[in-house]
Amino acid sequence: MFKKPFSVKSNTNIRNSERKKLFASFPSDSVDKFPSKAVFSICKVINFQQREVNVYFCERTPVFFNISDDANIYPTLYFLWQFPAAIPILLIHDQVFEFIQNGADLMLPGVFIHPDYKFPEFPVNSPVSIGIYSGKHGTVSGPVAVGVSLMSSQEMRACGMKGRGVTVHHVIHDHLWDEGAKGNPPIIQLETIFQSATDEVEEDLGSTIESVLQLNQEPEEEKVEEKEEKEENEDSVEENDEKVLFFKRRFLIQCSQYPWT
Fold it and tell me: Which residue intervals are annotated with compositional bias (Acidic residues) in the record (predicted)?
């Protein structure tokens, strides 16, 4: 998207109402940290493919962009370096990143799935980022690229992680990155961007326990119903006994009036 220089059509400041609409696509704990008096502007550009792109700046640093024929709003690397968990992140190794930096899309066989952390969940056609995983230190460098998912996370796992997974729009050292302060990507810990796989087990265990408790409660309700039914039956038996006793007494009274020998 920004591999080659782009031309600027216009550059104007945006109002607070437009800023709120822009922020609605991202977690509040990240966008709320922007200074309330920060100046936001929108720069309309035409890239080398003749596609129109809106680039949103905060104090002259590109923080978001969206493409004219795409409803998604994508965070730039500068935004993600401050808030790496704002969108799902996929991990790759250094060797795979060389292909991405040369303009290739992310192929799913190049995605690294860490056994101790849950694979992120996301639908098809949603913004995702890409980070470089260091197995030696157990850390992630980046994110180093941003793109759109060509499959949902569920479809990726179902197909055995094969085929094209992400169309890359923005990568470190491209011309959009050149508009910011540059610098090196941060090194982040895995636990800050991924949920532990054990959390899923704990959630499953929690739901299992809850189900068991519900099952244990159901017999109690049945017992109450059985008890009520039993009491009703006992009442009906007592009523029947009283009726039988009444008729017996009446019969005996009638019999006493006759001379039985």
Answer: 218-240
E-assigned strand segments in the chain: 7-13, 40-46, 52-58, 61-67, 74-75, 89-92, 106-107, 127-134, 139-149, 164-171, 187-189
Q: Which helix (H) or strand (E) holds 233?
A: helix 197-256
CA distances from 196 to 80, 84, 177, 207 (A): 21, 16, 32, 17
Q: Are 9 and 46 in contact (CB under 8 A)?
A: yes
* pTM for this entry: 0.71
Tokens of 235: 């009442």
Q: What is the pLDDT of residues 209-257, one digit of tens each?
A: 343 334 344 444 444 455 555 555 555 545 555 544 544 454 444 444 4
What is 37-103 written as a DSSP string? T--EEEEEEE-TTS-EEEEEEETTEEEEEEETT----EEPHHHHHH-TTSS-EEEE-HHHHHHHHTT
- Which residues touch 117 (CB under 8 Å, ≥6 apart)? 190, 191, 194, 195, 196, 197
